[in-house]
Specification:
The chain is α/β, with parallel strands linked by helices and 261 residues long. The protein has one domain: P-loop containing nucleotide triphosphate hydrolases (Rossmann fold). It is built from 10 helices and 10 strands. The strands form 2 sheets. The chain has a 6-stranded mixed beta sheet with strand order 6-7-8-3-9-10, sandwiched between helices. A hairpin with a 2-residue loop joins β4 and β5. It is globular. It binds adenosine-5'-triphosphate and magnesium ion. The site of adenosine-5'-triphosphate (ATP) has 11 residues, from β2 and α1. Adenosine-5'-triphosphate binds next to β2 and α1.
Length: 261
Amino acid sequence: MDDRIIELKDIKKSYGRVYALGGINLHINRGEVVGLVGDNGAGKSTLIKVLAGAVQPSSGDILIKGKKVSEWNAAKSREYGIETVFQDRALAIQQTITRNIFMGRELVNPLGFLKVREQHRQAEKLMREIGFTSKVFSPDSIVGQLSGGERQGVAIARAIYNQSDLIILDEPTTALSLTETEKVFHFVRQARAAGRSILFIGHNIHHVFDIAERFVVVDRGRIVLEATKAEMGSAERLINFMEEIAHPKQEAMKTLAGGHQ
Ligand SMILES: Nc1ncnc2c1ncn2[C@@H]1O[C@H](COP(=O)(O)OP(=O)(O)OP(=O)(O)O)[C@@H](O)[C@H]1O
Ligand SMILES: [Mg+2]
């Protein structure tokens, strides 16, 4: 039996008459990297916002470790170990790595003073744990001086510090070069090795195929495919599948038309 961190049951979200999510059934197991893909407007971000508690579903249930949670919201999502790294607004770029890791959860002594050295020490440990190999950076480095991939690393380090079970990364590599993307992958693998689950959203199917071990394809608010890497076989098959749902071939159209005869 798999070890489910979170499970969505028939989650729907409508905006007026538009269904952004039309009944999503999805679960995330402990210690797995799941790739979430789909065309523009498919519902990926809406799905993440529901998981993060930033958006209330119109209907459906959210289960944590098998139990239904009522009145799901952002505070509960964090409390149950889900950390969402939204692109761009993830970090305070004028602040140090340490400040960013501890932001909102600072270590203070009984008198309310910041435990500066303790935070520094823990930030250093986290950076090592997550695989910051560059000697150039210390916990006192300003985040704005880091590369895009390294910034994602800081966000992941923060999620690890928060003991998150599930780290959600919304398009963490979209604006990054190949080298930077490799860094993010390295951080993701380290987080997974530390027992975390990762939900990775990406546009580049080759990237997602590389990093994830299970794939979920959404199309117009519904999950149209769930497959493990072994079942999928290659990134090309995943790409072909996605092209097929975006532009159904003549053959498929004929079959549909044939159904009416
Ligand atoms: N706040 C909103 N109000 C109205 N409609 C919305 C809102 N948010 C999303 N939608 C609609 O819901 C659908 C799914 O949007 P969503 O942002 O989840 O897609 P996505 O898969 O993340 O797309 P992209 O790859 O472009 O980021 C779209 O049709 C979108 O226009
Ligand atoms: Mg989106």
